[in-house]
Specification:
199 residues; alpha+beta; seven-stranded mixed sheet; globular
Length: 199
């Protein structure tokens, strides 16, 4: 296992890594696996701010097993322009699903930004690991770089679909929790969480 720079060319592989967590749900209702993969790619592109705060762990065969993306949340990373470019290929059900996801991001992310200080706080925008221990290495790598570049804290948001207890075990403080009414769910307990870690 080794840590490498994550580049834009890695986005589709990261989407495939994320598919078992988020893609299966988006693929349901007849939307199909390719659509589920595209929604995962959209999620990764939401988190993609380019270098230098982007890393991946690859195994001995060069396969990605984990990745972490962060950056300056004030940057426009073009994720919605990318979605707009592929939306004409979607059917009505797929379009509704994609719009719901975009609205979820559009309503949730600003709630995180309200807690952040531009230039002092870095945004952890995407994080996934398929192998225990790899996430911890990536988190340490990102924090070390951010700290050396003058950042003093890291913020992120996550929700009930993720292993959100992970963050409490890695020195993050939960600063907010709220019901995700904007997202379709059968569960009344589907919550979104905002976390902060001071360096």
């Amino acid at each position: 296992m080794r840590i490498e720079e994550f580049t834009e060319n890695d986005i589709r592989e990261a989407a495939a890594l994320a598919y078992p967590v988020w893609g299966v749900g988006h693929a349901g209702g007849g939307n199909g696996k390719e659509f589920g993969l595209l929604m995962c790619e959209y999620i990764v592109r939401y988190g993609w701010y380019g270098a230098p705060y982007a890393f991946k762990v690859v195994d001995d065969e060069g396969k990605m097993v984990a990745c972490i993306l962060g950056g300056d949340h004030t940057m426009d990373n073009g994720y919605n322009k990318w979605l707009d470019s592929i939306m004409p290929t979607f059917n009505e059900g797929q379009t509704a699903e994609a719009v719901a996801l975009r609205e979820y991001f559009g309503r949730t992310a600003p709630k995180v930004y309200e807690h952040m200080t531009t230039g002092k706080d870095i945004y952890l925008s995407f994080f996934i690991s398929a192998i225990p221990g790899c996430g911890k290495q990536l988190l340490a790598e990102l924090i070390s770089l951010a700290k050396s570049n003058g950042y003093s804290a890291m913020y992120l948001w996550t929700d009930s679909s993720c292993n959100h207890d992970y963050y409490a075990h890695h020195q993050f403080e939960r600063v907010a929790a709220f019901k995700s009414d904007e997202w379709k769910t059968d569960s009344d307990g589907y919550l979104t969480y905002i976390y902060k870690r001071i360096f």
